[in-house]
Structures are given as C-alpha cells and as structure tokens.
Amino acid sequence: MPAITQFEPHEIALAATGDYANPYVELSADASLILPDGSERTFPLFWDGGTSWKLRIAPHLIGTWRWSVTSRDSGLNGRSGSLTVRSGSRKGSVRPMRGHPAHFERQDGSRFWFLGDTAWALYTDNAEERHDRDAAFRYVDARAAQGFNVLHSMLLSEAGWGNRAGPPFSDLSAERLNPDYWQEVDARVAYANARGVVSGLAIAWGDKRREEPFAWRRFPDLEARRRYARYIAARYGAYDVYFLVSGEWHGEVRTRPAPEDEIKREFIEIGRALDEADAHDRMIGIHPMTEHGSVREFNGASWMDFGDYQQNYRNLHARALESRRLGKPVVNSEYGYFLRDQNGDGVPDKDNSTSITAMRHATWDIVMAGSYVVTGFGTTYFGGHRDPGPFDVNAPQNKPWEAQLGVMKMVFEGLAWWRLEPHDELVRTVTPRGEDGMELGRLTPPEVAYWALAEPGRQYVVYVRGVRAPVTIAVLNGRRLRARQLNPRTGAQTDLAQPKSADQYTYRPPDQQDWVVTLRAAGTQSILR
Q1: Which of 6, 182, 387, 432 is the most exposed place for a label (fewest CB within 10 A)?
Q2: pTM of the shown model
Q3: In Å, how far are 147, 150, 204, 317 from 333, measured between CA atoms?
Q4: Do residues 426 and 516 share a domain?
Q5: Has residue 220 been placed in a domain?
Q6: pLDDT tens, 148-181?
Q7: Where does a domain end: 413, 444, 470?
Q8: SS (H, E, C) 244-304
Q9: What average pLDDT does the segment 299-315 reach?
C-alpha cells in the first residue's frame, strides 16, 4: 500500500484496452474513493495519451483511502487499490477563511494574505520573446522570493501560443487534444506549487477579436466545452490551484450570434461541469472584460467562490467595497501593468500604470477596501508579448515596484488582517477626497484619498495621501493605542505620540505623499518593528 503525504498530488496510472479513434472524446472513467472518515467522493480520470489514463488526487485527510474505477473500458473497469496518507509539510490550496470568509486560508488552516502577479503566458513558449520553460522557472523563483504567493495564468493562450510540446489541441474543432502540451503544463504548475505559489488557472478565454484560435467559441458545442472543463478539473484539481471558468467571458458576446443572457447561462453550465468534476473543491471564479469590470452577476451560480474577480481601473476603492458586501473574497485581477508600453513609443499606455506612484496608489486603494490584488508588470505579464523587448523578470525598471509591494505585504502580515473591516467613516479631515485623474493620457487614482480598516477598539490601519491638514481617527471603545507611521515607499517606520484622547487620534501627515498609520491596542499581536 503506497504512502503519501497530506495535500500531496499523487498519481495512479492505468491502461485502457479498447480501441478508440479519439479516447479524449469517446471514453470516460471515474474512481469512487472511500475516505478515512467513511465518506465517498467521485474523482474523474483523465486521458494522458495512447492507452494511458490517470487518477490524480491530493488527499486532504490522514488515513487509508480506497479507490475503485468504473468505466466501459474493460482495462479500466474494476481496477482498485488503496493508499495511506500521513501528515507532511504541504499546506494545500486556498479556500475562503473559516470564520472570516472574505479572506483566504490554506487547506491546513494557515492564513494566506493573497498577493498575486499576472503571468498569462506561464505555460506557453515563444522564441521571439525568449519565453520557455527555463524562463518560466526563473520567473517563478523571482516572484516567490519577492513574496508573491499567487500567479494567475491562462491554460489556452489568447495569442495562440503552444509550448515545447506543441499546441494544446492539434485540432480544436475535432477535439484532438495533445497530451504532451498538458504534461508540460503539469511540470510548470508543480514547479510553482513547490515554491509555495498557488496557480490561478483561466481555463479558456472569451473570443474578443475572432482570430483567437483556442477561445471558448472555437469549441464545437456546449458538450465539448463541458468535456474540456471536466478534463481540466481531473488533471489539475490535485494541485494547489483555483480555477477561472473564463478569462474576459464577455468577449463571447462580441463574436457569437447569441444574446448575452444566453451566453452567460452557458458559462454557468461550464462552471457547473467544472465544479461537479472537481472533487478537490478548489475555488472557482470567472473574469470580466474592462468595460464591465465586475463579475458580481455570477454570485447566484452555485460554483462562484469569489465576491468578485474584477478587471477594473476606475473608482477602485468604491467598486471593491461594492463587491465585498457579498461576504466572499474580492480580487481585482487586472488594474494595471507597471510601465507597459505596448506600441513601443516610450510612453506607458495602461491605466494606473504610468508611474510607480499611480501603481502604488491604485494598489493601496484596493487593499484598503479589504480586497486583494493580482498586480502586473509590462515586461512579464503576457510573456513579453505586449511590451518592447523580450520577456524579462529582471528588468531594472520593475525593482522599485517589486520592493514597494513587499512593504505592503509586510504591513498586513504584521497585523491580524483577517479581523480588519472597512471603516472609512472613522477617518476625517478638512480636505475632501478626490476623483480619478489622468497622467500621460491614462487614468490614475485620486490625488487625495484616506481610508481605514479597523477591528474597532483593537487595531486600525489608516492610509492617507494628498493631505497636509490634521487627520482625525475615531477610536472606538476608548482603549490606549500604540501609534506608528509607515512610509509605503520605503518601509521606514516611526513611533508616533500616544493618543491624548480616548475617543480619537489626531495624525499630522509630514507632507502630501502617501502614509500609513497603524494603531494597536496593548496586547494586540503584531510583528511590525
């Protein structure tokens, strides 16, 4: 009886004996597993080329797991076995935090402050951009060292790229899947997971421009789309991942002769197929187009685990708050790609991305709504495809933003962030909050902003910019608080005077740049130094 560790992907390889022209389409197999607690789950197997079929599981319970396969193929049907699961060091994938469902934790219960980067092309290769497996691995190493714990990517390239093993389908219209491509994806997902990084997988893309060769529209029918979703659940559910039913799903509305409501219902069906096949209960979301910005409309779907997974550039703070009221984790997954210059004219051309100041302001506006980000860099986010020069994770212009993201993570991981709730009403000053502005012809966040997250009476995080006047922070329950000022640009910290009033604290910003103030009651745990 093989022994594996808890949350570790484990693979059982079996061989079919029948003769099939297209096993991916013609054959299926499911394994019934009896778990150590006596419960039962059904895990689908996936075809991996030739006669090879695989059962891939990452057991979450310690003890003995027993499995048996059901299939119309005589070589697969009736195969059975067991395995022993022992404790180990793996933490598992992410899920909504128990007791604080707007935040994340790992499966082992360890808390997880979600900090993502965009790596759309992580599983694909492009010689011109010098993007291949080695480049992908160097990128993962760099981002993990910088404190990123999430990378979201697309499994089917919007640009039509394959990888060293060829395209994902040799003929999508005939559903001719190329297992070699997916084996290369396996290696890259596993590599990221081994470095503590969770992979967000957009399983396909909405077709925005008609020429996208692997978009959802290119599948022959709804059953083919469901089949593909089940395949992805079977192949990748055992890894530390979450799934996105589609990237920019609204793109299908542009290119298919069907009403938007009908296309939305189809995506709900695809999500249901993914969810039903995913016995690992991975988080599932979906991703919008820019003009929509939000996918809150999918919160009625049984599989939607995010309050929102935005692509939004405007009114960042307010729109994150709107979605956070749904009581699930909110992520703005596309709000800027730092210094991206798609046309190569030397001028950054993406909203909120024209300077480090714009990127920092935008990111703080999102996280101060109790939400999370997937940030991005022009030189890396699409394998170098939409920025001059090849893919480059070591580009010197990225270093300041990489460092400032580390400062942000330090602030929140130094506090009991999962207990903080948005309380902007607690912060007041004579300077009114501003509106979105412009820089180099692109959208930027407001010059004046002040936001608060609080566990009233115990801990507060206040973010202020564009203000020289005194800022008052209402302190509820009248407890004595320790005050510190942090520079979000450098990480430098300074102790501030103790509050003189039990009801409020007055903060005087040193200048009109952005500043962070933390207020913490005696005995409230913090690792900030």
Answers
A1: 432
A2: 0.97
A3: 17, 11, 16, 14
A4: yes
A5: yes
A6: 999 999 999 999 999 999 999 999 999 999 999 9
A7: 413
A8: ECCECCCHHHHHCCCCHHHHHHHHHHHHHHHHHHCCCCCCEECCCCCCCCCCHHHHHCCCC
A9: 98
Strands (E), 87-183: 94-97, 100-106, 111-112, 115-118, 150-154, 169-171, 176-177
Same domain assignment for residues 193 and 171: yes
Buried/exposed 20-51: b ≥16 CB within 10 Å, e otherwise: eeebbbebbbbbebebeeeeeeebbbbbbeeb
47/29 Cα distance (integer angstroms): 9
pLDDT digits (tens, 9 = 90+) for 233-242: 999 999 999 9
Number of domains present in the structure of the chain:
3
Distance, in Å, from the CA atom of 90 to the CA atom of 60, rounded to the nearest integer, reads: 10
Contacts of residue 459, defined as CB under 8 A and 6 or more positions apart, other chains included, come to 415, 416, 419, 420, 518, 519, 520, 521, 524, 526
Query: Residue 477 has what pLDDT?
Result: 64
- Are both 298 and 368 inside the same structural domain? yes
Last residue of a domain, one of 380, 413, 446: 413
Residue type, 314: R
Nearest-angstrom CA–CA distance, 122 and 190: 12
Whichever domain contains 429, its CATH number is 2.60.40
- Residue 64 forms beta bridges with which residues? 84
Same domain, 338 and 269: yes
Take residue 50 and report the two structure tokens written for it.
Answer: 């030739």
- One-character DSSP codes across 193-237: HHTT-EEEEE--B--SSS--TTSGGGSSSHHHHHHHHHHHHHHHT
Distances (CA, A) of 375 to 190, 385, 513: 22, 17, 22
- Cα–Cα nearest to 516, from 497, 493, 482: 493
Helical axes 222-236 vs 179-194, angle rounded to 10°: 40
Exposed e or buried b per residue across 228-250, where buried means at least 16 C-beta atoms within 10 angstroms of its C-beta:
bbbbbbbbbbbbbbbbbbbbbbb
Residue 392 lies in a domain: yes
Which residue from 177, 155, 263, 185 is spatially nearest to 227, judged by alpha carbons?
177
Task: Tell me: do 313 and 265 sit in the same domain.
Answer: yes
The verdict on residue 102 lying in a domain is no
Tokens read off for 246: 């589609």
Structure tokens at 200: 């967000």
- The residue segments making up the domain with residue 514 are 421-521
- Of the candidates 450, 451, 485, 489, the one whose C-alpha atom is nearest the C-alpha of residue 357 is 489
Residue 338 DSSP code: B
